[in-house]
Amino acid sequence: MIATPLGVLPRSYVTLCALIGEVEAIRLVQRFGGRRLAIPTEPSAQHWLCSHISFDALQRVASHWGGGQLSVPRCLVLRNEAIVTESQLGLSQSRLAGAHGRTERQIRRILAKARGRDKCPQ
Q1: CA-CA distances (angstroms) from residue 81 to 6, 64, 68, 77?
Q2: What is the DSSP string of 21-69?
């Protein structure tokens, strides 16, 4: 799905992807990145996390972190890649800022950094 080298992603994100898949892991990162979540040892289908990920995914998370806390990584690399991609699709900096909870200045910096990465040394 995303062509990011695994070496730059947090280990907890890689583990989360292995347990529940990238789509559900991204949902958790987008909603709870940078926060700790208490994970039940025996989750039910009515658990509040089931409004964000499937019950099956919650059961797999509980098998690994149940009774403890999951520190959801922020995965800034993934967020920044999404911003660059959406910018290339024509979204304005204002819309990108609103969609990603950033300021327009932060969006400009992310895009400038990405442009600098793409330049080849002469």
Answers
A1: 14, 29, 31, 6
A2: -HHHHHHHHHHHTT-EEE--SS--TTSGGGGTS-HHHHHHHHHHHTTSE
Give φ, ψ of 107 to 5 degrees. Answer: -65, -45
| Listed residue (117, 111, 106, 113) closest to 89, CA to CA | 111
Task: Output the CA angle 118-73-119, nearest 5 degrees.
Answer: 5
| Spatial CB neighbours of 7, under 8 Å, sequence gap ≥ 6 | none
C-alpha distances (whole Å) from 39 to each of 72, 74, 92, 96, 104 are: 11, 18, 38, 32, 35
Residue pLDDT tens, the chain, 122 long: 445 554 578 888 999 999 999 999 999 998 999 999 999 999 999 999 999 999 999 999 999 999 999 999 988 888 899 999 999 999 999 999 999 889 999 999 999 998 887 554 44
The rounded distance, in Å, linking the Cα atoms of 26 and 48 is: 17
